[in-house]
Amino acid sequence: MDNQEITRLNENQLSEVQRKFAYVFQGGALFDSLTVGQNIAFGLYNLKKDSSEKINETVGRTLSLVGLSGIENLKPCRAVGGHAQARGDRRAIAIAPKYLLYDETHHRSGPDHVDIINDLIISLQKKLGNTAIGGLA
Predict the structure, then answer these.
(1) Which long-range contacts (CB under 8 A, 24 or more apart) does 41-47 make?
(2) Between residues 119 and 87, which one has the greater pLDDT?
């Protein structure tokens, strides 16, 4: 991975490699009991170990990046932005991954959602400079 042999890494070294990846689950896999902001922050608390203030800034910046500022306190079912998978992208991009892996982004999507999802994936890839794997029709 990135010209680094990873098959013989110890647990700490492998964790560093894993931090380069984020995964967008089919259907978003968001926690319904958490707000949009808490869903986005979930990985940040576990992976980045940033302060609460810095995490809140990252959540705001992430939502701004996809044109949805101000919905941090809404539950996922109430949040604008349509498709659950697209909302799942926000949680994944908050950790600023080098590689963003998508699981069946078009599963059970209508034609209008396919275009929206494709446009979002391409837009995020251009803005973040990451590599998107899977999901494009």
Answers:
(1) 41/94, 42/91, 43/91, 43/92, 43/94, 43/95, 44/94, 44/95, 47/19, 47/95
(2) 119
Q: Which of 5-9, 25-29, 36-40, 127-131 has the lowest mean pLDDT?
A: 25-29
Beta strands across the sheet bearing 21-24: 21-24, 99-102, 131-133
Say how many domains are in the chain: 1
Contacts of 74-82 with C-beta under 8 Å, sequence gap 24+, read 74/35, 74/36, 75/32, 75/34, 75/35, 75/36, 76/28, 76/30, 76/31, 76/32, 76/34, 76/36, 76/39, 77/32, 79/36, 82/113, 82/116
- Read off the pTM: 0.66
Residue 82's domain is classified under what CATH number? 3.40.50.300
How far apart are alpha carbons 113 and 116 in whole angstroms?
A: 5
Tokens linked to 45: 């608390």
CA dihedral 78, 127, 97, 101 (to 10 degrees): 70
User: What residue type is assigned to position 71 of the chain?
Assistant: I
Report residue 121 as tokens: 């994936």
